Amino acid sequence: MLAPISISLASLNITTMAPMLIAIVGALAILCIDLMKEGLHKSFYVMVSLLFLLLDLGAVVDFGNVFLKSGSVLGMFDMMLIDGLSILSQIIIVAGSMLFIPLALTSKRFHEYNYPEYFALFLFMIAGFQFMVASDNLILIFVGLETASLALYTLIALHNRSKSFEAAVKYFTMGALAAGFFAFGSMIFYAITGSVEINQIALALAKDEYVNIGFVLVAVVFLLGAIGFKLSMVPFHTWTPDVYEGSSAALAGYMSIVPKIAGFVVAMRLFEFLVHSGVVWLQVVLYVSVVVTMTASNIWALVQNDVKRMLAYSSISHAGFVMAAILIGTTQANTALFLYWALFSFTNLGAFSMLWVSRQKNLIPGQSSDHPYEKFAGLVKTMPMAAIMIGLFMLSLAGIPPFGLFWGKIYMIGAAVSGGYTVLAIIMALNSAIAAYYYLKLIVFMFMKEPIAEYQKYYLMNASLSLKTIIGIAAIGTIFAVFAVNPLLKVITLFVYNSGY
Amino acid sequence: MQEHILSILIFFPALAAMFGFVVHKDSVRAYGITVAAIEFFLSLWLWNLYDPMTSGMQFMEMAPLVSAFGISYLVGVDGISLFIIILSTFFTLIGIASLTEKRRVKDLIITLLFLEMTMIGVFAALDAIVFYVFWELSLIPMLYIIGAWGGPLRIYASIKFFLYTFTGSLVMLVGMLFMAYFYYQATGQWSFSLLEWYRLILPVNIQMWLFAAFFLGFAIKVPMFPFHTWLPYAHGQAPTIGSVILAAILLKMGTYAFIRFSLPLFPDASVAFMFPIAIIAIIMIVYAAMVAYAQEDIKQVVAYSSISHMGVIILGIFSMNVEGITGSVFLMIAHGVVSGALFLLVGVIYDRRHTKLMSEFGGLASVMPRYATIFGIMMMASVGLPLTINFVGEFLSLLGFYKQSHSYTLVAGTAIIVGAIYMLSAYKKAFFGTVTNEKNKNLKDVNRTELLGLVPLVVVAIWLGVYPKPLLEPINNSVEAIVQLMHDKAQTLEAKQRIPDLSNSAGLNSTQEAH
To answer: Can you tell me the ipTM of this complex?
Structure first.
């Protein structure tokens, strides 16, 4: 007969799940409200989601204080791990989501926002991402990943256009493959070490001095494939441009930021110890994939005719740039990753929002996609403010000082320099020069060409006050980033360093 | 207010540019002139406050920006940067005052005021990252000026200009990060302050690599052969105001940065690269002069002559002694005045005929006597006639390099003389002889607006040619400090010999007074 299991509730430390639970409760609340009263305006749901996200953020920040006082917190049979990485990434996730959700308040009606389920799914997705970063248990990471991904596929499809369905199905199929990879990789690690917790795996591997290196490598291949897919690393990137093109510009912007930070944290937890324990093969593979991701996607971006697809490739390139941090693996590099991503989220959100405000419902004859470059021709003559905004975001993405991303870039390249990766540092710098060309292309269209009359009425036709506010916040975050860098750097370094990365 | 004068100088134009958005487009030109005039008088006031006997940095301001990474807002001027700053404010004023552009003047003036901020920022910055910020930021207004107001190939020219410079400066940025990292290794903390970097003595092989990284950034900007290919396009397509600012100020950023960064940070590498760079400089002088001779477009002649003169400046800088560097700094200012004036003059004729081809002209001297006179004076200044402004700089630069190598200087000096040919022949083609083209018969001579821009330049070109002392003395004092620093830091025997030791010579009396 089995002995009865007795655990005290206190030892579960159930509060570690508080942030995710808030998001889940929010989602359920939205569903219940819909049951009781139908036909509420989308602004109601937007604000309710925003409130729950605010609570969520509050809970995360509270953990931040706890962490600074007494270090990492474990809970739920050590499944949950609230360390500096998870707190930082949750802040980026929740704050990014809070900036994203008001983009639903367009002045034109869009199909997806009529469904309250959209907002419920959105909150579920956030909970999924939060679980993903707040654990070093491969199974919980997997569950979080799948929850978030399934919700995201549906959100894309809700946009209700043939291209959106294509995008959702494509993303789903590829995502299923990646999920399979993840499960396989975890399984192999479990087989050789008897654990699914990353720090246990690290200990077990170190203890028997990597005798099973062959198996480790196979497991790493699978996991690299799975995470590479999430981060859209070349050669797992093929879904990205199509999916971005199919989803609404707002959601595309969201996808380029939030899911990726979750992916980076998992990658950091998984690969960092392997890189540090001298698995040379992994170093080589990471090095190659970082360089190829940066360079190849930049070159593809050069030949795009659609701004959204260009931004899709550019976000792949940025992901590759940031992935270098995991290869370098110093505290400075990991700090740079979070700094870069925090700054990137403002700029990229702004860039995608500018596309979103000029979204048209039907294409005009001869128009091949939603946002061809020609659409923005001569914008400075018709709408100087909008042109300056887009120009600002493009310059920041290109890494022109003193705008946001420049500071992330120099800190990252500085990390490469001090980590001893000289060649990588130069490749990173030169890639910024290649990238400058396609960002400039849009600026050239906006500032140096004559306007095309048919497109003019589409500009800012979606813009409502709340969208303009979000764009304003993004712009302020981009311009005045220089004053935020120092405090950010200090906080991030503190969190990352105390988590042992 | 005096202690913040540099910050005021840097940010006043930018602030004024923001306010400029509100000004009505019919009045914006007057607004631009007012702002540029205030800025110019502020810079003159800076000169007035400046103590010419002190060799070090003055009016320093410091505010931490990213202290965790050692980046701070650090600005200051010495004799080297002071006059280039005044040149920048002077040319922005003249450029706006003599503006003949009619299309979207408001955008243009706002852009020019932003550009003025970045130019002054570059020359005042003493923190490498702040320097880099302004250096990169200066590309954007110029990109817009060339791309929006330029000729038919303007987009190609503007993108080429941007990408070329941007690529070079990114490599330079990696070099800066390395420099900061070495500082971190030596002292345990990050710093991008140039003054703290000066104290760092680097191993010679590292100096070589870093010198190369910085060199790429600076050489593209100057532009040195073989990185010069963007310049003729940029000049050819840019509107008059763009060419004037580009030639007078933006190109000087590269040569200035050589003096500010490369020489004092990497003295051994500078000496090691002295002769290769001197060869490049001589190629620039000779080759650009030959290409200029073959041009049919007056503006291209001036553009290539500009490259040719930049070669002399480079030669002066890499002579590594007080005469040469002082001469090259003076020549930077001289070249700014003269080439800026020449581009303005080309703009005058372009406004009337909408062509710049020399074959279209001939005998202009009889139709436009005042124009021909001013052009003639500036052309004489450009070829380095004694008692004009260029002569002083060229003479000192060559004198400086003569101390390093007689034969190189001989070649360079001859090349400069031969270089006069293309200028004289261009002048002959356009101005002398009979008026062959019907369209030229009734051209109007320079009007009041244009004279407003040109006369001050003529006055400066002659005044400083006759009496250069007010500029030379402060420049000389600051250059002495840099040369002494280089001598003290030099490690190799060759560098010690090539860079003169001033500590027990007459040069000391100026530094002694700095208390």
So the answer is: 0.91
